Amino acid sequence: MGVITTGQTFSSGDQVTASKLNDIANQATFTSASATTDDSTLTLASSKLKVKDLGITSTQLAADSVITAKIQDNAVTTDKITDSAVTLAKIENIATAKVIGRTTAGTGVPEQVSILDEDNMASDSNTSIATQQSIKAYIDTAISGLPTFYAFSSGSITTEAQHTISYPGAWTGGTPDKIIVSTRYPTGDALSTVFFQLVSFDSTTVTVFAQAGASTFASHFCDILLVKN
What we know:
By secondary structure, this protein is mainly β.
C-alpha cells in the first residue's frame, strides 16, 4: 500500500498535461499515520507530519547532542515542567547572606534580599532581614539595664507577729534594692483585716510584721515582690 495519495489519478487513454502533473505533487497527502510514520516519534496532523507529543526522548538524541536553536518565546509553560524538576543548583547563583524575596512595591520578579547580622541594628533597614543571633544580642543589650523582678508568697500566716521569710532558691540577685509587700485574702472577701509591714531584708530573707485589725486573725498570705536594679 502506498504511503502517499496523489492529487491526480489517470485512466487508460487520459491525456497527460502539465496541470495534472503538478496536481500529482502539489495536492498529494500522506495516507495515514500508521502507514507513513512510526506513530511514536512522528505522527500525522491534518495530513501533515509533526513530532508527536512526548515523542522525542533520550533514545532519539545522541549522548553528546546539543540543542543550539532558541526555544520559542512563551513556549515553555508550567505544565511542561515536571514537579520538582527545577533544582536549587539550576537557579541563578545567590550572593552570600541573601535570600530570595521581594521588597519593591507591587508584584514583580523575585529579588535578592539582604540578611544582616548586626547586633546593634545600626542599618535600621526596612528591606533587610535580621539574623536570630543579632536579634537576641540586640534584645539582651536593651534589657540589660532594666530592673529584675521576682514575686513569691510567704505561705499561710496566722499570728500577729514578726515573720522572717526566706527567698526561694530561684532568686539569685543577692540583696534586693527594693521590696514590696501586700496582703492576699484567701477567701476574697477580707473578713478580717490584716496589714503586712516591711521590717527589714537582706540577701536571703525578708522580715515582715503581720498586724491584725480585728479580734479574729484568719490565715493570710503575704505576697512579696523583690526588685533589683
